[in-house]
Amino acid sequence: RFTPRIFSGIQPSGGLTLGNYLGALKRFAELQGGEAETIYCIVDLHAITVWQDPEVLRARIREAAAAFMAAGVDPARSVLFNQSQVSAHAELAWLFNTVARVGWMYRMTQFKDKAGKNSENASLGLLAYPALMAADILAYRATAVPVGEDQKQHLELTRDIAAKFNHDYGVEHFPITQPLIEGVATRVMSLRDGSKKMSKSDPSDASRINLTDDADTIAQKIRKARTDADPLPGSMDGLKDRPEAKNLVNIYAALSDETPDQILSRFEGQGFGAFKPALAEVAVAALSPITAKMSELMSDPAEIDRILGDGADRAEAIARPILEETKDVMGL
Ligand code: ADP
Ligand code: NA
């Protein structure tokens, strides 16, 4: 009953990382040209759930747009836009605030992580974040959402909101969206702490590779990445209790399109002194064209704004009628 449609988004809350590239952007580009229409969004309304400097945010929105395009998202083949330019997102989020339950929100692990100990002092928006995310997805009746592992719980909440809406109003109005969590890099870990995901909002710059890092910086961060002193085994089975080592091999695999086991069969018995420079070489080869393309695109902010404006018009044309139908179902 629902037309296949793919939606996903990224927050402009910091410079984008290798985690965002492998877990999201690279997949977004690969999904273009299939049977499903692809709609990609810079989610600035999510970013402001934690305070952002306005001038910095303005720049990061354009930088995120450049990163999407540099990673291969083509605005002619996908709808690429900025969330706050399409008001249907905020309007539908309010409707979903009346569907979602407070208890659902308090259970979200990302809220607990980001709000910290003093959660009473977190913004109300940070708590309600998953209802806005549901609105982002369901404003397009998206049937599938490519995301990293960290977004799985939020996506389940989107499904819960769609199901409760359909149940409460007695209509099959929204699809039950499928998560697309695929590949070896659905959860790229911090280079400094194998138990934390790599994130643009981590205070330690050494914990992540930024898409704007130059070749020397990438090589240095990989050289300094936390690892153990043991030699590498011949297959992934041997890395069960070595999260840092496993992370680096997975990154290598995701960047090179070789499998982790193929890579390990070449490095069996060798230490990180041999592995890290090889990984750095692969990472620089994969990322430097993206970095170069990003800076070329960012040299023309007016063109980025034009592309985002055009994307917003196309997004609006899909989302507005769905919002109007939703209001109608609710008696508004
Ligand atoms: P961040 O945590 O860096 O702020 P976002 O919340 O904006 O990232 O997430 C944007 C997309 O990037 C999501 O699909 C998310 O799952 C993916 N993503 C973020 N960090 C990682 C990671 N370390 N590994 C894999 N995917 C990630
Ligand atoms: Na996230």
TrEMBL record:
Pfam families (UniProt xref): tRNA-synt_1b (PF00579)
Catalytic activity line of the entry: tRNA(Trp) + L-tryptophan + ATP = L-tryptophyl-tRNA(Trp) + AMP + diphosphate + H(+)
Keyword terms: Aminoacyl-tRNA synthetase, ATP-binding, Cytoplasm, Ligase, Nucleotide-binding, Protein biosynthesis
Top-level taxon of origin: Bacteria
Its EC number(s): 6.1.1.2
Residues where ATP binds: Q11, P12, S13, G19, N20, G148, E149, D150, V188, K197, M198, S199, K200, S201
SUPFAM superfamilies in the record: Nucleotidylyl transferase
CDD domains (alphabetical): TrpRS_core (cd00806)
Motif ('HIGH' region): 12-20
Motif 'KMSKS' region per record, residues: 197-201
Compartments it resides in: Cytoplasm
A GO term for molecular function: tryptophan-tRNA ligase activity
InterPro entries for this protein: aa-tRNA-synth_I_CS (IPR001412), aa-tRNA-synth_Ic (IPR002305), Rossmann-like_a/b/a_fold (IPR014729), Trp-tRNA-ligase (IPR002306), Trp-tRNA-ligase_bac-type (IPR024109), Trp-tRNA_synthetase (IPR050203)
Enzyme class: ligase
Function comment: Catalyzes the attachment of tryptophan to tRNA(Trp).
Family: Belongs to the class-I aminoacyl-tRNA synthetase family.
Assembly description: Homodimer.
Name of the protein in question: Tryptophan--tRNA ligase
Organism listed in the record: Paracoccus albicereus
Gene name for this UniProt entry: trpS
